Amino acid sequence: xxxxxxxxxxxxxxxxxxxxxxxxxxxxxxxxxxxxxxxxxxxxxxxxxxxxxxxxxxxxxxxxxxxxxxxxxxxxxxxxxxxxxxxxxxxxxxxxxxxxxxxxxxxxxxxxxxxxxxxxxxx
Length: 123
What we know:
This protein is mostly helical. The chain has helices spanning about 10-15, 20-30, 45-60, 65-75, 80-120; strands spanning about 5-10, 35-40, 40-45. It has a 3-stranded antiparallel β-sheet with strand order 1-3-2.
């Protein structure tokens, strides 16, 4: 996407981020995005585009929309950037811990399936 561009349509963002316009409208409904309006047309700013990048990054690492909202809105608070970074680091560690536990659980389940399969196979 052209970095010199200052406004974007819902179609621009949908194409850039491989999303449906409906998904972008949903992010508006949960107050993650707030484009300006010209009649019924949505006009997204560079800031909205950056927020959408952050939303997509948060989703990729497994954060919920409420967690993403908390992190994004924290930036506007006094000392917000530092608090935002601390919260994000905490969320990353929590997500990492969850994923490690899931890996252990999967390994146990695979082992149990292998053992069961061996017992059931005829000699």
